[in-house]
Amino acid sequence: MKKYRFFIILLTIIFGLNRKVEAQNTVEEVLGAVEQNNPTLQARRQYVEAQALSFKTDIYLPNPMLAFEYLPGTPAEAGTQKDLTISQAFDFPTTYFRKKDLAEAQINQLSFVLDSLRQQVLLEAKQLCLNLIYARKRQAVFNQRLSNAKRLVQDYERRLAEGNANILEVNKAKLLRLNLNNDLALLESQIVQLTEQLTALNGGEEMLFTVTSYPEMDDIPEFEVLEPLTEANDPTLNYFEQQQEISQEQLSVNRALVLPSFQAGYRYQAILGQQYNGFMAGVSIPLWEDKNKVKLAQAQINWSNQAVTRERTEHLYTNRRLYEKQQTLQNTLQEYEGLLSGLNNTALLEKALRLGEISSIEFFMEIMYFYEGEDKYLSLENEYQQTVAELLKYQL
Prior knowledge:
Layout lengths: L1 H22 L3 H11 L1 H17 L9 E8 L7 E11 L3 H69 L4 H35 L21 H10 L2 H23 L4 E10 L2 E10 L9 H50 L3 H9 L5 H32 L5
Antiparallel strand pairs: 1-2, 2-3, 3-4
């Protein structure tokens, strides 16, 4: 019975680990983990909560005032004077409605601050995933090239022993193998570094991401269709648009603050055996304290309007540049795909070399030409994926 229970526990652990690894093997799951565990996002969420509370601290009445005076007279026959005052100060009544609206507008703006940071962090995580995919695709290609190079060295060494090759040809094959070994070692180091960066974004929790193919994507719509979608979901632009509303609300608050404020309360006085009590009231005369506050609010409105115009313009031209870049890269990739499919691959070149149809010099020139084209294609493919990720970051 104990062996049976141990077996069940062992299977549970194994399958649990498998599920964990599988959960980290898609870009979507990686982004979900980063969104949950990223320390910068966690700190910003706490900041937003604290800031939201701070915006609500100045929308209520000030505390009431309680004052008591005990004044013994001199000489003693003068008696003792006692004064008790309870008062409440308050601004013009509409001020508090304006302050509440202003606080709500400021709190709403905080969500765009958090959205902007979230979008940046997730875009960085996605770009790291794309770079890891690119690195692993190159790793697979380099491993295959290295395998071919090792076989080529063995073939040349055999031919040298038979007298059908010279030492220069053997050295060329060994140099090719050495270069591929070095390239592969550097690539493996790069994969480790990218994985560490992804782990750092995930709050130090290790990320296992071994995907070797880019995620499928839908067709990108025309720019005229795409631009309104990206603009509506641009948190930076939304932040400045919300600032326009905040500036308008601040103007309303400042206009209310220049109106008279009031004070009302109760006062009790006792002296020489006589008592006086009754209500008290006061009103401020708005002369100096709030001077230029309305002008300041109007200046802030002008600034926020200009900021929205500037941000909308930058957004438009940035997205247009990215859109045109991805179109150019897509066309170039299609050309490379057609070209590479028509080039002689490694197997055909090796066969031609064995049959004596090409010389060793022609072989090494052709193989390097083919490798260069293949590397350029992989680089362009990654650049295309990165460009599309930045263009469609509003979907994150």
